[in-house]
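**User:** My hope is that you can spare some time for a protein that puzzles me. I have put the entry right below:
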Amino acid sequence: MRDRDSPPDRIAHLLGGVVASFRTVSDRWYATPVLFVGAFALLAVLPQALDVRVFGVGLGGVLSLQALILALVWATAAQSWNLVSGFAGQFSLGHAAFFGLGAYTPLVLAREFGVSPWLGMLAGGVVAAGYGLCLGGVTFRYDISGSYFVLVTLAFAELLLYLFVNVDAVGGASGVVKPLPDAYGAEFGLGAFQFSGRFPYYYIVLSFLAVVTLVAVLLSRSQTGLYLHAIRDDEDAARAVGIPTVRYKLFALALSAFFTAWAGAFWAMYFPSIRPRMVFGVLVSIDIVLPAAIGGIGTVAGPIVGAFALEIISELGRRAVEFPELQDVVGGVVLLLVVLKSPGGLVSLPGKAAALVDRLNGETRSVWDRDSSRAEDD
C-alpha cells in the first residue's frame, strides 16, 4: 500500500493548498487593485535596485535603466493597442500611425509655435484620435473586418510614412530635431519635458503606463467593456441584441489612438531626434503588437508582462551577441514559442500551473484510494 505521507504526496498536498489559497484571494473584489498597486510600487523602486548586489550578482547585470524605459514605452503602447484589438477584437497592424503622430505633433508645435511639449502631447493625442476616427469611419461603416481590416490599418500607417518623408515642412526624410527648452520658453525640468538624466524619464513613462492601465481596468469592468467583449466574441450577435457596434468600435479605436500617441510623444522627447521611418515604420507597429501578443491579448496584465519579458530576453541577447537586429529575431522566436505552447500568453501560465497541480493532486488521491481498496480486498 502506498504511503499517503510520502514526500511526493506531501509536496502535492502543499502545492494544492497554495493554489486553493491563491484562488480564494483572486476571487475577492480587491484582488486586481492590490495586484496592480503592488506591481507599480515594485516598478517604482526597480531603478533604485539596479545597483544592489546579492551574492555578487546585481540586477544591473541583466537590465539597464535604458532597457527599463524602453520596456515601459512599449508596454504603454501595447496597453493602448489592447484597448481596441484585445477588448474589441479589432486587430490593428497600423498603430505606428498614432505613435508617429504623437511623436511629431509636440516637436513641430514646440519648434514652430513655442508650445509646451505637454500641451503638444495632448494635441498629438487628439490628432491621433481624429485620424483613428477617419480610419474607423472607412472600415467600420462598410463592415471591413478580419484580415482586410488589418491591411487597411497597415495602409493608413504607410500613407503617413510616405507623407512625412516627402513633406519638407516636417523635416522630410531627415526628420525633426528636438528643440532645446528655451525654444518654448522653459528650462530643463518637468515643465520642459526634458531632463539632464534618465531617471525622471523613467518615472514619467511609468506614470503614463499607470494611467493607461487604470483606464484599461476601469473599461474592462464597465458596461462599455462588456459591450466591447461582446463585439469581440460575436459581433453579429451583439448587433442583434441592440448594441451599436460601430459606435463602440469607433470609441475604442479613438481611445486607443489617443494613448498610443502618448507613447510616441514620450519617444520624441526622450531621443534627440526622430525620423519618419523611426516612428511610422511597420516595425514600430510590430513592436507595439508583440508585448500584448506574448503577454496575453485581451488581458490587462499581458502587455506589461510581455514588454518586460521581451526586453529582458533581448537585453540578455544583446549583451551575449554583437548583433544589432537581435531584438527582432528574439521577438519572433518568443512569439512562436508562446503561440505553440501557451496561446493565451504568458499570463495564462499561472492558471495552467494551477490546473497541473490539481491534476497531480487528483492522480495522487486516485492512486491512494486504489491502493487502499486493494488492501481492504486482501
